[in-house]
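JOB MANIFEST
job_type = single_chain_structure
chain_count = 1
residues = 374
[input]
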Amino acid sequence: YGGWADKFYGDVIPVPTSHLNYTRREPAGTVLQITPWNAPVFTCGWQVAPAISMGNAVLLKPSELTPFTSLVVGLLAEKAGAPKGLINVLAGLGQTVAQAAIAHKVVKKVVFVGSPATGVRIAEAAAKRVLPCVLELGGKSANIIFADADLKRAALTAQAAIFAGAGQSCVAGSRLLVQRSIYDEFVSMVATGAKKIKVGSPLDDATEVGPINNRMQYDHIMKMIASGVQAGATLAAGSAERSAGGYFVAPTVLSNVTNQMDVARTEIFGPVVAAIPFDTEEEALTIANDTEFGLAGAVWTNDVGRAHRVAGQVNAGTFWVNGYKTINVASPFGGYGLSGYGRSSGVEALYEYTQTKSIWVETAREPAATFGYL
């Protein structure tokens, strides 16, 4: 983004009059950015960099559960030479500090990363001042496995897609759609791998999956696992029993899931994957799109035509072919539907942090007569 700062141009428009018409991209002003607890330092940098590169000031409101890394980033920015006040970190509760910031006249745009329920409240508060928003919300992403895929590689990646970070990721591959002819074999591969993953303290070098961030989220995950089992899903891996020594959730694979079950429709935000069978490409697309969310998705197949067809027809802002969870700041990121709107990276983010001014310059010696009196 530092490289973009002096290369983001306006346009000259060939209007059908005697005017020179050109556009300028101007800063939005002061931007309020509200970031989540699951990746605090990552989302801090992800949001701040494009905003300041386009000439905006930032009010950064991190989650009250994870404020310290953002405070350090603000301090380091000033030590690196950023003007004081360019990046301001507001530590406090969302319902008080964030709401007060949205209501303040200095704020000209709001960017929020978090849950759909909170996103609705943010958008409602911003609408009272007619403030534009970028909302990066949750997901229930479909990871689609066809019978002709490299099953070993797909199974390993399916585990990483949902179990990395204890599943506390908006793009997690939480719905595993598997072609029926390989369903039992593939689900067994994923479940067997899940049982080998070491869950424990982050301070233990052998740990591969750590605890859930907070009690409220832990309770939600355990409630969802129990409801899935009660609805008829099978625990192919994991447990519905609560941990005795902390907020630990074993990597969980729920098989025999239908897309109508709550575990297939509600964002769990934990290491829990719902495995759903399908027969045809058309059925896979129908299931993948039968959701309010539209953040991400993937397809695994050796059929190039099918890969492009599926990628083009799944409603998702990010989609992978024979891979999962590759993200880079140079590429746009955002969602469809309940997953939000606007883009928070790539060149598209620079448009989000600027506004367009159209300038008309009369060049004719004698301008055409307009309505008026001397």
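[summary]
The longest strand covers residues 19-27.
The mean pLDDT is 95.
exit_status = 0
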